[in-house]
TrEMBL record:
Protein name: D-malate dehydrogenase (decarboxylating)
Catalytic activity: (R)-malate + NAD(+) = pyruvate + CO2 + NADH
Organism: Actinoplanes aureus
Keywords, sorted A to Z: Manganese, Metal-binding, NAD, Oxidoreductase
GO molecular function: D-malate dehydrogenase (decarboxylating) (NAD+) activity; magnesium ion binding; NAD binding
Amino acid sequence: MVQRIAVIPGDGIGIEVTAAARTVLDAVTAGHGIELAYDEFDWSCRRYARDGAMMPADGIEQLRAYDAILLGAVGWPGVPDHVSLWGLLIPIRRAFRQYVNLRPARVFAGVPGPLRAEPGSVDLVVIRENVEGEYSEIGGRLNRGFPDEVAVQESIFTRAGVSRIADYAFELARGRRAYLTSATKSNGIVHTLPFWDEVVASRAERFPDVRWDSEHIDALAAKLVLEPGRFDVIVASNLFGDILSDLAAAVAGSIGIAPSANLDPTRTYPSMFEPVHGSAPDIAGRGVANPVGAVWSAALLLEHLGHPAAAARIVTAIEATLANPASRTRDLHGTADTATVVDALVAAL
Ligand code: ATP
Ligand code: MG
């Protein structure tokens, strides 16, 4: 069965790292009975400059029939974030009900992390609730500019929304080290987070084989720095997950290696896979971007499409490539260019 991938390279180094991910995907699928067909879309800030829109009006419809979306990065100096984000990324996440944002973080040998953690000692996944919570548009401002000005923003937590993200996280933990940490702040936030805690606790009953606990976000952030090795899967609301996933990526080392997935676990709609980094205008077009974040994201794509062995082969190849100083890019204090890293990955495969 051919699985169809929509590829949106986007802007800047997004184009370079997506090409690298394609090369690695070809190498890992060839001869292994995995058939992927790709269509490329030039949706980007370049397109916005030309046509006044990041993607065509029927862009979501065009993507709907694909099995997955591989994205590079969108954004460029001079194009405001509300154009690049709200003109492409956010409509895709919402239309396709990608309610799970998944970000693995591992400490690999050869990656200069800030903590001097032993390679292999950190291997965790942050699961961020991706569609509700603190990022609602409900609220407003009163008396603008006056001394009695007020700003109000509502958070929305639903039983269905918290249940499904908790279920996803428990399920994932079950296939790993069977340990889940739920991020909360129910000692200070009196309505939404006690509700989050209650719903997570009620879902936990379905996963008696998974050990779990609840940590306040402040203590959890500190523990992620002080003892990151103790975590397996962390589940968090939209805002807390946003913060924790950047923190976890920083703990693991360069932003150039961090991958992410925006998932619709029901598989009704295509899920989207993208490196955590942006378009990096400062190094774009020079062939020096670290392709590992995009390549690892492609591995998450393969896993989601039902090819876990191929995904695992990519992660092993990444491990081998990073362990060799000759195939590390500048962000990892090496001198390799993108093509050298891709060659090393393909050779390792
Ligand atoms: P965004 O606004 O899209 O979140 P940003 O501008 O905050 O992105 P990036 O575009 O990710 O951040 O770049 C941040 C810094 O990290 C830049 O100096 C960039 O060169 C570097 N960087 C990002 N990704 C990579 C990569 N894949 N390889 C090497 N350096 C990278
Ligand atoms: Mg930026």
